[in-house]
Amino acid sequence: MAEDKPDTAEKPLKCEHPPVSRRTFVLGHAAGAGLLAVAASRNSLAKTAEFGIPSITIPADLVESRNAPPVEAAFAGRGMTGAEVFARACRLENLAGLFCCAGNYDVINAIAQEGIPSYGGRTEGSMCAMADGFSRATGEVAAASGTEGPGFTNMITSIAAAHFARTPLLVLASNMTLAGEDREAEIQHMYQQPITVGIKKYGKRLIAPDRVHEYAGHAFRHLKAGIPGPVHLDFVDEVASARFTESSQLKDFYTREQYRSESRPCAAHAEVLRAAQLIDKAQRPLIVAGHGVFQRRAWEELRAVAERNDVAVVDSGPSRGHFGDGHRLSANMAHDALLSADLVIMVGQYCMPSPGEYRFNPDIGMIQVSPVEGEVGRNWPCDLGIVSDEKLFLAALADVIPARKREAWSSELAQARSAFEALNMDFYKKGLAYSKGTGVLHPAVIGHEVHSLLYQGDIDPRQTNVCTGGWTTGLWTFRYLRAFRPAQEIIPAYQYGSIGGDIPQAIGMATAVQRGVGPQKEFKGAPVVCVTSDSNASFGLFELETAVKYRIPTIVVLYNNDCWGVFDSAEHSPRALHLYLYQENLRYDKMAEGLGARGNYVRTPEELRRALREAYKAAVSGNMSTLINCQGKKEFSLPGQYPPGLPPMIEPGRCAFMH
Amino acid sequence: MQMRSRAITAVSLDPVEAVGRRLMGYVERGVLRGLSGAESKRRGVRAFHLVWFHHRVFELRVTPARRSICMPVLLPGVPASSAMYRAFRRFQRSRQCGDLPEHRLIPAARCALRSRNRAGAVELSLTVVDGDYDYATAALIRFVNEVFLVFLRDAPYRRYMVDVWGLNPDREQF
Q: pTM score, two decimals?
């Protein structure tokens, strides 16, 4: 994976600079027009240093460590440990990255030594979310690791989020000895596998040292076949530290070509023809291009089908952009037209909604395409169920579907998209008036300003990866973000709706962009923008330090409304309201500065606009991360005071995060 | 795919049977999660009970003598004087003579949609103008589908859904 080597490939979007401290970096670049404002910003780290307090510094040890050459373990000589056998198998399977905290030492050290890009952070839960974000942005397998007891339990929420997003996430968590587990010897014993029941695709506690390679095969077979999902392996110390001097000491020591296959299920020709007939017969067909279309990188085949027969398409799943918001047949923002569709073709929609959850008419016909037989017909009865790999099905369909133009349908889609944009503009104008009236920022203004910067200025609209989350923030910002290419956007809250994954998943995505992995290759090195909430920051903010230390440019736009967004649940319970409230005017920008990132505090659209531009420049020119604290107020969510309170949430399409 | 079983359920079918068949079709499509048989009421009224949105039971009455299909309590807790009720009436009109594409409209020549407010509950009724109960049932189901997927979601009725329908706030309008 030549594309994955850190800090060596050309990075056209950023200025190269030596790994120096932030203080010298800021001062050294202060003469540059783009960063004048950075050095001058309030409480900059340069200013802090004037008082004799040492500035935040990326240590030379860290840089040297990252640049150290990989060392591939070998049976010859001292032999290989169980951890090294496993790490070697991971390398041969092109494991794309490891995101971990200290613990599970033998395994994480072996994986890093093998040359697999590895990242250490602050909390296991967030690092697991980071691995998930990386995978959502690339479709590649990523690993997360923590120590056996508390490190592992810290990861549970993120494992669950990955499970419901069908992420091929390899969860590793180990440390202690099998011999000591029922004696409570020392600390941190945890029998892990029962805890991940229901949130993993496959799991195993490895207790036989000579089967470690065999279980690596099991893991990758599950990670790379069918519908993906987390695989959870825990190594007892007897396995991780076992030593092998010959491959014959290992059972089932097969190559990956022997222990798994790249063969995929393929629809029968008659089934593809039947699907083509139904689509051609329909007046207003619509493809829901789910997770499987992204996972199988079937976007070219999808486009061929859609354009040949003028079939509308909605992107779906935790990664967005495999069809793209800008296409004339995109229904991502054509909410008004969804009810007109008379046939839906769900392709690789792993998280199936039930009728009534999508904005479809009750007479709509249904074709479902899934790579797994047991998923066909789940939740939503289908008129035609097809078991097939998504890429193979779409390629076969493109070959047989008749060429056809549907002027009325594409015109209806265009009108619906215009209505969506007009509504967004209406929301923005309302939000602007509210912002001027209150002196703080309405979330529609935040969405609009981010939209203006990323899609309407001099930045290529296809360049910047985005994600959003949080209750109030997500509902508002989904409307304003765009995805024009595969995985330009990820949806951290997809299906599981956990709070806390936004920032670490954005950093995971930024890691992929920084390295140009898979679909992120075209805009390698570009910044990532994450629009999130104060509640979300409670869980993931500390990983900004991880972004800074690895120089992964992440811009966090944080809507600070001083509360949990669902505070209005206590409308009729006055004594419960305090359960939802924080202190007002907390300074998340200061926290970010304390972690080595840039911080901005904004209350007006003009301040936000300026801060966004400065943050983007700092990200592009210096790989700097920034948190922009947008002060708002909770009452903006109340429709009685600031209509509409919250915007409509419609599925499928641009605003969808449940299915 | 709309109205595709129309050929099977001809206009000449008994009205209650035609309505029942069409509703059963929606059960088979997963739209309705449950359906009772037609219960006889006074004055020739027959009542079906539908398990539908939010797993709630909706009553649907058929009165052949008056060519009427009616849902007596479509939306509870909507006072007649409320802005929400006025908005509902506008929404209803928009589905018969609005700017929607033709395939989305319910033609008044075939079915006449009416609503009224009875003690704070929105009652919806539909007159089967052309005698095609199959089509009329589909039109009614389609309209109610849009009430829940469009009317209640696009406007700020989240509190209404929480307070009156008892939905969990985390579920938004679902």
A: 0.92
